[in-house]
Amino acid sequence: MSQTKNIYFNYFRIPSDQLRYKQWMEKCHTVHLLKKDLAILYKNYRVCGVHFENNMFLNPSSRNRLTMNDVPTIFSATRLRDAYG
Hints:
two-stranded antiparallel sheet; 52 kDa repressor of the inhibitor of the protein kinase-like; THAP_Znf; metal-binding; zinc-finger
């Protein structure tokens, strides 16, 4: 019998702060989105919570609130598999 983990992911808005939004776009390798209006990105785009380290959350158990200055850092398939099975 195999066991599977039920994992629920939270999604986070692109920051409305100009500097942080540029950092997020660079880290996510989505610099092509820098051409879009920031208000549109903030309203319509999200980054999945799996791309953030546990220590970047105010509440690591539910992972639904990021600390103020964090940027996504996890993009390796190996690191994602290790973190979420």
